[in-house]
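Q: Sequence in, structure out?
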Amino acid sequence: MHETEITRDTLLEWIERWGESYDDIRPGDPMSVANRVVEYNDAEQAVESAADPNAVYRNLASIIEPAMRSMDGFFPAGSRWLAGEVERLEYEPAEEGADSDASGREGTVADMLGTSFMVRAEASADDRDGPSLDTVVTAASNEYLNSGMDADGFSDYVRSTWRDAAAYDWMRMMEEPRSPGEWSNDSARLAVLAVMMRFAPESTAMMIASDVLDPNAPLPLDRLRGLINTRDDLVDTDRLFDRLIDPSEPADPKRIAMAMGILDPVEANAPTEVGYRIAGLKSMLLLAAGDELNARRLAEESIGYDASDRYASSTLDRLPEAGNPDEGWSDGSRLCR
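A: Exactly. Output:
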């Protein structure tokens, strides 16, 4: 049998690719992570054909272990950070006289992203039900702000990491084995989405609307991440509505109901401004479903709180004036108000 040579460079490439999986990671078990790296890269056969497969796993774990020393809690979607930390330790020369202890290294989890928000939330839990969702959302928001602000403003790395994680979390929650309309109970993922609906509402809503209403939905992960990483001021809601909503063909009610099972608990537990942002987005989804009455109700509530809500405004632009049912949508075309 031909033996495969697996070099250190190959192992580092596997870790780098695995970083894009946005796996959750827990501290203290590098061998478990090594197994997931191999699995993500479909490299089981290559490892088994090596002279000593166990040595491959040990070598991989030995590369991962130093990076994991700087972890201080459970990290939802933390694989990207860990892969970056592995690369930093591998290629950046150690500063002369630097403390070898992980807690003294620049770029640790505590420095880059802060203590995991789930750890903070669980520390305040007072019963077996765990921390409430509003507590987790608050902890996540604080972590996002505390980890992102530096002397030069807000970190692009933190911003893109959270947005990429939100796209992954959205995808995973839409795949949950829930009944349509049943609420998701994944507090960590709901909290990440709530943070992005607060700090990147236009692009996050665009990602969600596209994944629910696009004829090719569900969208691939790289497409979701491309959408959510759009600058908010570049989101064209009128164009988005025209692209995604066809009044002659109501959207998939099951997919809308699955999305509502994610948006509803966030709306109920997030800060007020986030709740109204979600209401504006939901008005768009209900318009696409043909539920004009509730679409109007939510859009008007959102506009009443924030007149600049573009999703709510675009919904109202496509509805007939109250008491004028002949205006608005007609023969598949939008009539201007």
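The first helix runs from residue 8 to 19.
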